[in-house]
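User: Hey, my collaborator sent me this sequence without any context and asked if I could get a structure. I don't really work with proteins. Can you help?
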Amino acid sequence: MSTTDGKTIQLEHENTFDELELINHGNVAEHEHDEEGNSMFGFITFLLSESVIFLSFFAGYIVYKTTTVDWLPPGVAGLEVREPFINTIILVSSSFVIYFAEKALKNHNIWLFRLFWLLTMAMGSYFLYGQAVEWSGLEFGFTSGVFGGMFYLLTGFHGLHVLTGVLLQLNMLIRSFIPGNYENGHYGVDATSLFWHFVDVIWIVLFVLLYLWQ
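Assistant: No problem. I've predicted the 3D structure and written it out in structure-token form, which is a compact way to encode the shape of the chain:
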């Protein structure tokens, strides 16, 4: 065999090896994409199940409010709207902030992502603080009739979801400092952002039911 033929065979082997590497890399990427798609589908299913729970609470609240004679506890004329409205503006605005964080990550601007992500966490934490302040100043408790029980159940259950969202965001923020963590996908960030939008929409419904419909 001549030297030229040897080099030709070697090049053919190298080309075949490169092709196999590309195929394997494509298969791995496709597998990771399918895993992310399946995980997101499962997460959306989870949010739908949470929606059913909240919808049942909303329906119960409407039924009780429209059928209970003495709806408000004795001595309570209604709920103060100003501070909850401010908290609502802050929470709803955080949905836009977390959207910009997602866009920054997809544009590979990790520091801008962290900035917007941290701002979202701060806005969510402020909402929880505002809710705690409101609870401390209320003139009724959980056992103050049907209204008291429904109010604390609805706002407390939603507040638990807000706290969960903030903790998920903290986890994603910490993971952003792991080198190359988001190079192969952003499922965690996308799922957390979707959860946050869900929490915001639920609160808008709650704000209308509890504070505007008095």
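In plain terms: Residues 11-20, 22-32 have pLDDT under 50 and may be disordered. You can pass these tokens on to your collaborator as they are.
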